[in-house]
Amino acid sequence: MAAMAASVLCMALVALTAAASVGEAAVVEHTFVVHEMNVTHLCNTTKIYVVNGQFPGPTLDVTDGDTVVVRVVNRLDHGLTIHWHGVRQIRSCWADGAGFVTECPIPPGGDHTYRFNLTGQVGTLWWHAHVTCLRATINGAIIIRPKDGRYPFPTPAREVPVLIGEWWQLDLIELDRRMADGNFDDNPLSATINGKLGDLSNCSGAPEESFVLDVERGESYLLRIINTALFSEYYFKVAGHTFTVVGADGNYLTPFETDMITVAPGEAIDVLMTADAPPAHYHMIALANQPPEPDPQIPVFISRGLVRYAGVRGDNNGLPVPAPLMPSQHNTMPSYYFHGNLTGLAYPGRHRVPMHVDERFFITLGLGSLCRGGKKVCKRRRSNETIVVATMNNVSFHHPTTTSLLERYYDSTGEGVYTEDFPENPPHPYNYTNRGLIPPGPLEEALEPTFKATKLRRFKYNTSVEIVFQSTALLQSDSNPMHLHGYDFFVLAQGLGNFNPKRDVKKFNYHNPQLRNTVQVPRTGWSAVRFVTDNPGMWYLHCHFEFHIVMGMATAFIVENGPTPETSLPPPPPEFKRCGTNGLTQP
Q1: Could you say which residues form the signal peptide (predicted)?
Q2: pTM metric for this prediction
Q3: Are 495 and 501 in contact (CB under 8 A)?
Q4: Which of 110, 120, 252, 369 is the most exposed place for a label (fewest CB within 10 A)?
Q5: Taken in order 380, 383, 387, 389, is the CA torsion positive or negative?
Q6: Which CATH superfamily is domain 153-343 in?
Q7: CB 145 within 8 A of CB 158
Q8: What sign results for the dihedral spanned by CA atoms 97, 419, 544, 521?
Q9: Domain boundaries of the chain, sorted by first residue
Q10: How far apart are CA 175 and CA 135, in angstroms?
Q11: C-alpha distances in angstroms, 515 versus 177, 250, 419?
Q12: pLDDT tens for residues 442-458?
């Protein structure tokens, strides 16, 4: 495997140093019609929300330099926006699609047109609904191809988006309403691979349909694996096969050999898989991993698909179909090691890590509680007198519901809507990863009280920012996939336990760190990232677990204009629709 990785790395460096001069940029136009659709799984017919009758939705297949224009028609009884996850949106913050952050939702019966350019990004990104829990079924892949058609790895025979998600029997709008009221007892019924539950799920003895990947022996396949799930990180394996990881979040990686992929919500991982096993059928499995604390009784979410070699009978020539050996559902360490093994592909012209830092943040990620009814004093420890919320530096983000933060900032009317004092550090240092804080009790009770506020942070253009995200054990022990809109950041290091600047800064990788838009902050561990504020606008920062978003694990960064028109946010484009008085876009 090491020899194969070395070969891929050699090809990568040759391809990336070659000149790219093929083709001209195009305008790629799509219409997305969002509507309801009834689907039957597990003996129940469920109403789901989809785009153009597809689950997952249509793939946007474009080339570096293209301009994308998508008209979204909303035929739901609920407002929504579409976010283009990982797209840098250089000088096009108006098209980011973050509900109540960059725009108000598209009203029922309304439409909205998004226009943005894709330059300087190559690989896999994705799009999804960004209001309530609708992204569970309203989502799809974005494939950005290099201008010259050449990858820094062997050209695959075929490219296959693999979208891992969840199947919810509960109506997604009702799920969001329950979470907003502090009810987190609902779970999906199954995992999905490209919308298929797989044959491990069955109803009255009849197995569900599986996703099938047909392959030819000796050929390689580029799997573009995206985690669209609301609740879980996933392990992904194919029996009898290995992967070469070559990219993530629209950026190339140093080739890395493994037999299992770990993908957190919001992440996109590109892998090469060579069909080099004896011709047969082989199971693929997507398995959710869950922290063992505080609730070890979380159900197993799993989907099983099939890799099917050409020339093999439908009954696998009478042989049993091998399945991969998966880790324990509650073993989160494979995720830690997988993410720790990823590095960026270093080549001439690659973005360099800023070596100076203008502003540093240490951001704790945890839970807290509010007293119900606006009371100042109440019984804590997850009592029925409180609502459990999520926090960053002990601030639970209050999401606007009638206005857009970007519009308020652009119009200089933000007073009374938000403040610009999001804290650089938590209010009180403590042993952030003390497992004694997970169960309700006297240790955590003093740390539990928090508050809701729309606290943002403003940066001057071209500021070098470093953030250390610290996952805590306060009332939970989740990992936290943190996603920043409008930016890629360098992932300098990760670790377990409490971040110690005297010790851990020495681990920072300045040579070839990953460039990512989503960083998986380990369970009771930390991750350090660095970026330069070179894209003016209003940019949402949040955990990509949907329950953490609803609970308030979020903020937004304001980036001021630079000194020239080319470094400034232009006025809203003609197709942009401003917020009405009802919190939806105007007709």
Answers
A1: 1-19
A2: 0.94
A3: no
A4: 120
A5: positive
A6: Cupredoxins -  blue copper proteins (2.60.40.420)
A7: no
A8: positive
A9: 25-150, 153-343, 359-567
A10: 12
A11: 35, 9, 30
A12: 888 889 889 999 999 99
